[in-house]
Amino acid sequence: MDWDDLRIFLAVARADSLSGAGRRLGIDASTVGRRVARLEGALGAKLFVKTPQGYALAPEGERLLPHAEAVEAALSGAEEALSGPGDLTGQLRIGAPDGCANYLLPQVCARLSEAHPQLEIQIVALPRVFNLSKREADMAIAVSQPQAGRLVVQRLTDYQLHLAAHEDYLRAHPPIRSREDLRGHRMIGYIADMIFDRELDYLTETGAEWAALTSNSVSVQMQAIRVGAGLGIVHDFAIPFCPGVRRVLADQISLRRSFWLIRHADDRRSQRMNRLADALAQGIRAEVARLQALVVP
C-alpha cells in the first residue's frame, strides 16, 4: 500500500463519487476507479459500496479512513518541518456564510494574499453548515458553535445587527418611532424553512409575523433593502457597503451574534494550518471592528 493509493481513497471518501474525487485530484474518473479497485485488490477488502447517491464507505473503508487521515497528517507535518516557518503556500479553502464571505473575507484574504503570494485562497460562500470531515473546506466560519464531531472550535468575534432601511424607503413611508410603528411596513428576511441555524432567525426578535420579501442569502436581503424594498435585520459590518442604508430603532432592536472558526481535529498538529487560522482570526476581528466603527449611530 502506498500513499498515492491512500490519497485517492481519501478523495473518494470525501467526495462520495469517482468524478468528484477526480476533479479534486486532477485526474479522470476512470483512473480513480481503477486505482480504487487496485487498492481493494491489494487489501483483499471492499472499501466502498455503490449506491444511487454515489460511493459510500463500506465497513472496511470506515476502518481504514482514520489510518489514511493519520498518514496524510504525518506527511503534511513532515513537509512543514522541512520547509520551515516561511511564507505560507498551497491551497486554503474557507467555507463561510454568505454575509461573512461577501463583506469580510474579501478584504481579509486580500491582505493574507499580499503577505503570502504563493498562497491560493478559495472562498466558498454557502448558506449552510460545511462538512469538514469530507473536506468540503479546510476551515469553516459558522454562526453557532457545533456540538458534535472531531473538531477544533474557537470563537472569532462578536458582531452587531440592527433593523435597517434605505433612506429613500424611510422618506416615502410613515415614520418609525417604536416597534408598533413597524406594522404595515414591508419586512425583508430569511425564507423560514431554509433557515439552517437558529441564530439566523432574526425577524422573530422584531416581532414581525411575516416578511414580504425573503431569501436564503443575507446578501440578497441587503440588496433588497438597498433598493428600497423594505426593512430588514442587517449586519452592521455590511452597512458601509450600502450608501443610504440607515439603522432603524437602533436603541430598541439590537442583536449580538458570534462567528466561530471550525477546523478538523487532525489539523491542530499542522503548523501551517495553525498559522493560517491565527492570521484569519486576527484579520476578521480587525475587519469587523473597522467596519462597525464606520456605522453612523
Give a summary of the structure in a few sentences.
By secondary structure, this protein is α/β, with parallel strands linked by helices. The chain has helices at about 5-15, 20-25, 30-45, 60-85, 100-105, 105-115, 165-170, 220-225, 270-295; strands at about 50, 55, 90-95, 120-125, 140, 150-165, 185-190, 215, 230-235, 245, 255-265.
Description:
- By secondary structure, this protein is α/β, with parallel strands linked by helices.
- It folds into 3 domains: 3-83, Arc Repressor Mutant, subunit A, CATH 1.10.10; 90-156 and 261-285, Periplasmic binding protein-like II (D-Maltodextrin-Binding Protein, domain 2), CATH 3.40.190.10; 158-257, D-Maltodextrin-Binding Protein, domain 2.
- Helices cover 39% and strands 22% of the residues.
- The protein is built from 9 helices and 11 strands.
- It has helices spanning 3-15, 18-25, 29-43, 59-83, 98-103, 105-115, 167-172, 218-226, 271-293, and strands spanning 48-51, 54-57, 90-96, 119-125, 139-142, 151-166, 187-189, 213-214, 231-235, 245-247, 254-264.
- The strands form 2 sheets. Strands 3, 4, 5, 6, 7, 8, 9, 10 and 11 form a 9-stranded mixed beta sheet that branches. The protein has a two-stranded antiparallel ribbon with strand order 1-2.
- It is elongated, with a radius of gyration of 23 Å.
- The termini are far apart.
- The mean pLDDT is 87.
